[in-house]
């Protein structure tokens, strides 16, 4: 347990940041799942529309360093490739 006032405050701040970051990680996963669901439905136009919305969410989370930028890029690349494969 934190003994000094400074340590108590840092513990409060760390908990607030942890909860905020957990929400951001959840938004990332939800955005990816929305695109995957649209791809599974087979509607390329809808999948592209959802993908564009999800890219902004994914990039925002990477910019805040909640996820590494390479992880965000990897997800975007794989989702984009899956959407392009729908035409084939």
TrEMBL record:
InterPro entries: Ribosomal_bS20, Ribosomal_bS20_sf. The keyword Ribosomal protein applies. Keywords: Ribonucleoprotein, Ribosomal protein, RNA-binding, rRNA-binding. Gene3D superfamilies: Ribosomal protein S20. Binds directly to 16S ribosomal RNA. Belongs to the bacterial ribosomal protein bS20 family. This is Small ribosomal subunit protein bS20. The gene is rpsT.
């Amino acid at each position: 347990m934190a003994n000094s006032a400074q340590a108590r405050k840092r513990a409060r701040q760390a908990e607030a940041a942890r909860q905020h970051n957990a929400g951001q990680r959840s938004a990332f996963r939800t955005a990816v799942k929305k695109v995957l669901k649209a791809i599974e439905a087979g509607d390329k136009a809808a999948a592209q529309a959802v993908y564009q919305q999800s890219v902004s969410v994914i990039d925002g989370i990477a910019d805040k360093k909640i996820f590494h930028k390479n992880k965000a890029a990897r997800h975007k690349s794989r989702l984009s490739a899956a959407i392009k494969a729908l035409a084939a």
